[in-house]
Write a structure and sequence with these properties.
393 residues; Aspartate Aminotransferase, domain 2; 7-stranded mixed sheet; alpha/beta; binds pyridoxal-5'-phosphate
Length: 393
Amino acid sequence: MTISPLMPVYDRADIYFERGEGVYLFDDKGERYLDFVAGIAVTGLGHCHPALVAALRKQSETLWATSNIFKTHGGDRLAQRLVDLTFADTVFFQNSGAEAWECGVKTIRKYFTATKQPQRFRIIGFKGCFHGRTMTAIAASKAPKMVDGFGPLIDGFDLAEWDNLDSVRALITDQTAAIMIEPVMGEGGMKVASPAFLKSLRALCDQHGLLLYFDEIQCGMSRTGKLFAHEHVGVTPDVMCIAKALGNGFPIGACLATERAAQGMTIGTHGSTYGGNPLATAAGNAVLDVMTAPGFLDEVVARGAYLQRALDKIVAAHPRIFVGQRGTGLIRGLVCVPPARDVNRAFRAQKFLAVEAAENVIRLLPPLIVTEAEIDEAAELIGRASTQLENAA
Ligand SMILES: Cc1ncc(COP(=O)(O)O)c(C=O)c1O
């Protein structure tokens, strides 16, 4: 038998991490790595943040699981806080991003049956989008790598060109239910939707009676310097999914919706065994405690600007390695000249962790608690890796 006990669907780095502390990871040989992956935008508050450790320790000694047929104060509190902090009137908790995203799709489809327009079920997304790996989520992205061999795919998703309103308009038919977008496209290459584009999508939805659906699983939870990326623009969606940094590593996702959009989600229409369990919502509440503390977002904005300046210098110093940088806040990408995979390998040799994205981009997603000194250290390691690549060429 040659197959590994862990199904080999990931090209895993040959590193065994055993411990994390703030922005650092330590492997089984005691080597320290500067972690600008953060679980791919998951550990927003860094590894083993004391507030999270305390909250989970306390909750683990109190109650782990009930069922969604019973209430918990932690779950009610987290839902209420998300409602108070956002456009939403109601929240459903799930265990992952893909599940939270799919809850949004179900919410949208149910809205149109509840409002007697069952012919409207199609959702317009964007080429390069990523919403997870469930059958529905891969059908929405249509990326060959994700869908090949998994057909027949669920029908109902159309793909428009990024930042191209005409291509969105051209896809709207009497079957269209919603327009769905990541305000900052993550896997697709760290592309920030322009304020004008998001505003136009809102207007298009209003004009055609469609719902606007934001996927803030990667770009939400303070990564752009606001709790949610769309807040920079002043446009609100009807439905939004979040996950990743909401639990800082403890699995939790959430689908948020307005009362109007969620009108079809009545008793019995949806459910989850683990979604919103006491451990997950304790983590979520602890994350919100930190993120809503005065000054937290100001620090993210300041660190984002600092990282941007550092990356600009790197790009200027290494034009044979980088064409430019893009992104916002602490969700940024370096656009590479050589294959991003090779550049990332050189980073790793310097014990600097980053993650690739489409369009030959390397994503930098440091924990939001990163300091200027740690950004300086990242710049130093990136610079060293780049020089090494230049010398090897
Ligand atoms: C924008 C976006 N949506 C959905 C997902 C899926 O989340 P999960 O892997 O938790 O299912 C991801 C994960 O990377 C994501 O970045």
